[in-house]
Amino acid sequence: MLLRKLVAALCPLLLCIVLCLLYRWLDGVLAAGLFGSFLLKGLLLGVALALIIPLAGLRCHAKGLQPWLYVGAALLGVTLGYQYLETIGAVHSQLLLSLFTLNGQVILVESAAAGFMTVTALLVKG
After folding, report:
1. 115, 47 contact by CB (below 8 A)
2. Nearest C-alpha neighbor of 76 from the set 37, 41, 42, 44
3. Given Cys at both, which of 8, 39, 50, 109 links 56, Cβ 3.0 to 4.6 Å?
């Protein structure tokens, strides 16, 4: 039982340390402030967040919510796709641009949520 408690207490911390080291490495490899950099960091953050509960040894079962997680992740994917097209100049809509900002932190949060929802849906036993 002590081992399970230690795993539950230390796995999230270790995951954060690994993610911070990975972010530092990515900052050296990728140009800071690019759309792809924020997207990749957000996806990694979402995956790490989704893995905290299973790595801690907890199990969860949700009934009927798995498809809805995929729908939410797909909607966020469409939003991120539009933001990418807006970034490279392929599309431009003043109305949509007012709804979907091109701020790096927003892209990071949206991609983190998409990564979290996707991995959680994959791990849930329907």
Report:
1. yes
2. 42
3. 8
